Amino acid sequence: MEHDNLERWLVSYADFITLLFAFFVVMYAVSSVNEGKYRVLSDTLTDAFNSTPKSREPIQVGEEALEGKNSVIEMPNAHPGEPEQPVDPLAKVANDFQDTMLPFIQDEMVRVKREDYWVELELNTNFMFASGSADLEDEALPVLKRVADVLNKYPNHVRVEGFTDNVPINTYVFPSNWELSAARAASVVHLFMTQGVKPERMSAVGFGEYRPVADNTTPEGRNRNRRVLVVVLADTDARRLIDMERNRATR
User: Fold this and answer.
1) Rounded-to-integer distance, Cα 245 and Cα 206, Å
2) Quick check: 150 and 100 in contact, CB under 8 A?
3) Is residue 18 one of the residues assigned to a domain?
4) pLDDT tens digits for range 144-196
């Protein structure tokens, strides 16, 4: 007699387990695809709502439009009827200086001034140079290195300006305050270069005693006039505007 196989259920059970395994594999694959699509959609929406819109065509604003000007850019109006909001890249530079130099600002060693076409960082030379010298003091190095750290973040041109009081100087190295102020500005530029600021971005200018901001008849006024300015320019044309502003201020 033919033997009756009582274990045929194992075949059906194996088929069931195989189908069950395939079902969960398919479900896992489908869920992974949906999760990926969800993440792509989520990231896209996040970027769309959080990113700053960029203007395709910058528009100059202000009394005088400068060729190559990039300090103020009009953004496209996303909502018709609402006023367009300007974006000011120089404001970020000024805020960065304010945050980075805050301890020195509080000690009145540094002043930050925001103008329309440039940002000014005024450094009192009392802690930077000895009297009649253009060699940087050790006390000035950590201050200037912080300034260089900020400058390295931005591509703007930088003009370093040296100023003195009206006390005359006549030495072999510095026959007048012209040479002293220019040498001090050059010392600052050289230090910035050693800290990674590209030299082609920088220039050094000496104004001597002829651009005072205070009265030279008092010790306080002479102290204020002995200064170095680190000027971050919106563009190369801003140099002309700086000189015009300086001339008006000294008349």
Assistant:
1) 16
2) yes
3) no
4) 999 999 999 999 999 999 999 999 999 999 999 999 999 999 999 999 999 99
Q: What's the length of the chain? A: 251
- Quick check: is 229 in a domain? yes
Q: How far is the CA of 164 from the CAs of 36, 65, 90, 112, in angstroms?
A: 65, 33, 28, 19
Using CB atoms within 10 A of its CB, is residue 72 exposed (0-12), middle (13-18) or buried (19+)? Answer: buried
* Nearest-5° Cα angle at 63, 59 to 69: 40
In a domain, 159, yes or no: yes
With respect to residue 31, please indicate whether it lies within any of the assigned structural domains: no
**For the chain, where are the alpha helices, taking DSSP H only?**
9-50, 89-100, 102-106, 141-151, 177-194, 219-225, 238-250
Could you tell me the CATH number of the domain that includes residue 231?
3.30.1330.60
Domain that residue 197 falls in: 89-250
CB 182 within 8 A of CB 205: yes
Domain count along the chain: 1
The verdict on pTM exceeding 0.90 is no
